[in-house]
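Internal ticket - ligand job 265, MP5:
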Amino acid sequence: MAPNVLSIAGTDPSGGAGIQADLKAFSANGAYGMSVITALVAQTTTGVVRVQEVAPDFVTDQLVTLLDDVRVDAVKIGMLANAEIIRAVVEVLDRYSPRHVVLDPVMVAKSGDRLLAPEAVGALREQLLPRVDLITPNLPEAADLLGEPEITDVEQMPAQAERLSALGAKQVLLKGGHFDGGDSVDLLHGDGVSEFLGSERVETTNDHGTGCTLSAAIAALRPQRSGWPEAVREAKLYLTEALRASERLEVGRGHGPVHHFHTWW
Ligand SMILES: Nc1ncnc2c1ncn2[C@@H]1O[C@H](COP(=O)(O)OP(=O)(O)O)[C@@H](O)[C@H]1O
Ligand SMILES: Cc1ncc(COP(=O)(O)O)c(N)n1
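stdout (structure tokens):
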């Protein structure tokens, strides 16, 4: 039976990030994909033009309507836009206690545009982070959550992941995509595991939505695998292949998307 997997996130009309990327990653990883939208984002490969946040009670209505009908086997949470939407999501998590919740703490797009109000970082850290199973911050997000400068070296990752665990995150996947050169190394930390996951750095500017894709693939795979390390390792392989396959795409003039391909093509 394919798992039913839900994305709670914002939109990307160019199909590279947000809900659109998540649904593609869910399908490519064997899950049935569903979505609750938190914000409509006028964005493309070159950046964000405007954000229209969804009313928090409408986010609640979307979630409650869905969860009253459908068994949800895993949840991926991405862009939440503001503190009121964070609170709405927290209330629903408390009420329905869905299994296997992954939080990608989306704050700023690759283009530099903010996708979370600065004053909402506290709500994300204090209210949401302790209620999820895995968080997947990139280096700037990890620094923001901890209120410290960005780390600059792979060797600093274990200590920073430990500080993130101390905030209440059960598992942390600290993503090192923003380091210069070499391999693209992430660190999975928590629950007795501390494991570096390296991959060859793919030479491409098609890196729009890499974080969305990775967290969505993890959520899709977790109900189909025995634990988080198994799901995370496989999702990282999937992402690297999707980055490689992006050379088959011609989408936009900026940071292009990764390609979610089916292996039987
Ligand atoms: N050029 C690349 N080649 C291979 N993997 C990459 C590359 N860029 C990013 N990644 C991987 O993509 C994932 C997300 O990357 P990162 O850029 O750190 O996060 P975000 O997209 O949230 O900013 C991580 O697993 C990272 O290691
Ligand atoms: C709706 C939405 N969610 C997340 C991202 C971040 O993606 P990235 O950092 O890879 O640009 C984005 N650009 N848009």
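Auto-summary: Residues 138, 175-178, 184, 186, 199, 201-202, 207, 210-211, 214, 236, 239-240, 243 surround adenosine-5'-diphosphate (ligand 1) (CB under 6 Å). Residues 4-248 form a domain with the UDP-N-acetylmuramoyl-L-alanine:D-glutamate ligase fold (CATH 3.40.1190.20).
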